[in-house]
Write a structure and sequence with these properties.
Elements: H1 4-30, H2 36-61, H3 67-93, H4 100-109
Helix pairs in contact: 1-2, 1-3, 2-3
Length: about 120
Amino acid sequence: MPCIRDLTEIAAKVVSAVGGFMGGTSILVYMPAKDWGDAVKRVGVSVVAAVMLSSIAAEKMFDKITNENLMGTAFVVGFAAWFLLGSIARFFENRQGKDILQITRDVKDGTDTNN
């Protein structure tokens, strides 16, 4: 039988998932999806990111975490996740064939030698 703490953690994950879903669907207003598959990917990435990161962010931002605080944080995390993960993926995609030391050196020096 689960204890009260386990149920609270499950409820927090559900609230985070709902907030991430709302953030992910809000992305579709600004960046319409090409097809249903693309929309499902965006919303899925948003929900997973919100479930994983929103409770951590809420702990850092608020003294007392309420459902409203957690859902708002999950919305922001879910909304931003697609843009941030896409930017990181494109950064590394443009630098295929380089090792991590070369990429680190390029970022540190401010040079863009990915051609």
